[in-house]
Automatic annotation (TrEMBL):
Homotetramer. Residues 94-488 form the Amidohydrolase-related domain. Keywords: Hydrolase, Metal-binding, Zinc. This is allantoinase. GO terms for cellular component: cytoplasm. GO terms for molecular function: allantoinase activity; cobalt ion binding; zinc ion binding.
Length: 507
């Protein structure tokens, strides 16, 4: 018996290790072929003349195996490829890391008539976004506790066409309750978000500096960021604006006056101080504060530069609508353009581009914040009462490209603003670049192809007529989107099942 055992031992070990390797290999794609992916295999090569890696843009071949990037080969890829392997040859199209949108409102559960996990993530997939991080407000209830995060996860089940993470909310109710915040963060919220002015949603009340400082203490322990809507209501200034002669609510100039840049400036000053106060003990950088949708490119931006220069852990995003539009051109009564902070003048728009190119603005996000068409009050065109929020999720890549071309932007800059830095903010170390061992998340697109966002264009947002981009002629057509190796969108078609994953922060 002992002899038998020793003789067969190597064979038994071999069989055991083959079985172990087989079952250890993720079977995600294999078991659900044809549903999660428009491909039928999970080991293949993507080749193109323009592959965007951290080293630059070059012809290349990317080997995808079981949802990950296995190899990246640069150079004349046709010579590198072996015969009989699955090859997706995208010719001259650009292969870039999938976009990561750190700021989207998907509004489910509770306001699925505004948007939803299914419609929102279908639009994301069609736009080359492979991960998005959902905001804690506009859904009902807001994501402000472990329980409400669980409701989000429940509502998202089987509806995600791309990967989706969640920000939790910092509100007065939980700000002084570190154990509640602990639970929310332990349950997987990637960070917290708060408002320094009314949010437009009653169940998501604003926070003051004291709340923010309390939140930052807890977040610092987890090394996760606080995202802040940085506008503080300076009562005196809003009254001056509304009492003035120019108070036609259909005029964008009226709205602009009600939310001056000084509101952003005051908020950013408070945030700078709050983040500096957290730089104590061994925590030289302090808690991470991320300013969402910066619109003012003057004093607010100078304050941000100052804080960064002083070593604060501060990052900032702006959105395509601040880079594409200027206040002067917004037609009277066209409330599709209403957002907060408001879109400012043309000189401001140009300075935002410069700040982005110079690295003072770190990244871009959509702030896709849709509503039902009735809330846009199209009949009245009242900028003061209409819902503030721009609907843009599906278009952010072509919009950034179309308006950025004039500034000479590169594909690597796009990848850094839309993938690399957002991945870092959201703590997703396995996403954001085309590199070995990263998740196989890609967008394949043709920058040169022009198209019009007209009535024939397939828009997957829940409501098409509220988007400020309708009617624009833009360039940059998304051909295909891959999420962890699954081809989830290809030339007008989505995979038949929604196999995106919820992303929860790791402990
Ligand atoms: N509640 C909400 O989504 N508000 C957003 N809309 C917008 O334009 N800015 C915001 O913060
Ligand atoms: Zn906001
Ligand atoms: Zn928002």
């Amino acid at each position: 018996m002992d002899i038998l055992k020793s003789r067969f031992l190597p064979l038994i070990a071999l069989v055991a290790s083959v079985l172990f390797l087989y079952f250890r290999t993720p079977t995600f794609n294999k078991s659900i072929d044809g549903e999660c992916s428009l491909l039928t295999h999970d080991h293949y090569w993507i080749v193109s003349k323009r592959v965007v890696t951290p080293r630059g843009v070059s012809p290349g071949a990317v080997e995808v195996k079981s949802g990950h990037i296995n190899t990246v080969k640069e150079g004349e890829y046709h010579k590198l490829l072996l015969q009989n392997e699955h090859v997706l040859d995208y010719g001259g199209a650009v292969v870039m890391p999938g976009l990561i949108d750190v700021h989207a409102h998907l509004d489910e559960p509770g306001r699925e008539e505004w948007e939803g996990f299914s419609t929102g993530t279908k639009a994301a997939a069609a736009g080359g976004i492979t991960t998005l991080i959902d905001m804690p407000l506009n859904s009902f209830p807001s994501t402000v506790s472990e329980e409400t995060l669980k409701l989000k996860l429940e509502a998202a089940k089987k509806k995600l066409y791309v990967d989706v993470g969640f920000w939790g909310g910092l509100v007065p109710e939980n700000a002084f309750d570190p154990s509640a915040l602990d639970k929310l963060l332990k349950a997987g919220a990637l960070g917290l978000k708060s408002f320094m002015c009314p949010s437009g949603i009653n169940d998501f009340p604003m926070t003051n500096s004291t709340h923010i400082k309390e939140g930052l203490k807890v977040l610092a322990k987890y090394k996760r960021p606080l995202l802040v809507h940085a506008e503080v209501v300076l009562e005196s200034e809003s009254h001056i604006a509304l009492d003035s002669d120019e108070s036609d609510p259909r005029s964008y100039a009226t709205y602009l006056k009600t939310r001056p840049p000084s509101w952003e400036e005051a908020a950013i000053r408070e945030l700078k101080d709050a983040s500096e106060e957290t730089r104590v003990g061994g925590n030289a950088e302090g808690a991470h504060v991320h300013i969402v949708h910066l619109a003012d490119s003057r004093t607010s931006l100078d304050l941000i530069k100052e804080a960064k220069h002083g070593g604060s852990s501060l990052t900032v995003e702006t959105c395509p609508h601040y880079l594409a539009f200027s206040a002067e051109e917004i037609p009277d009564g066209d409330t599709r353009f209403k957002c907060a902070p408001p879109i400012r003048d043309e000189a401001n728009r140009q300075r935002l581009w410069e700040a982005l190119l110079e690295g003072h603005i770190d990244m871009l996000s959509s702030d896709h914040s849709p509503c039902t068409p009735d809330l846009k009050l199209f009949d009245e065109g009242d900028f003061l009462r209409a819902w503030g929020g721009i609907s843009s999720l599906q278009f952010v890549l072509p919009i950034t490209w179309s308006y950025g071309k004039a500034y000479g932007i590169t594909f690597n800059q796009l990848a850094s603003w839309w993938s690399e830095r957002p991945a870092k903010l959201a703590g997703q170390t396995n996403k954001g670049a085309i590199k070995r061992e990263m998740d196989a998340d890609f967008v394949v697109w043709m920058p040169e192809v022009e198209f019009e966002l007209d009535e024939n264009y397939d828009i997957y947002h829940k409501h098409r007529n509220i988007s400020a981009y309708l009617g624009q002629r833009i360039s940059g057509k998304v051909l295909a989107t891959f999420v962890r190796g699954n081809l989830v969108y290809s030339e007008g078609k989505h995979a038949s099942a929604a196999c995106g994953a919820p992303i929860l922060a790791k402990q």
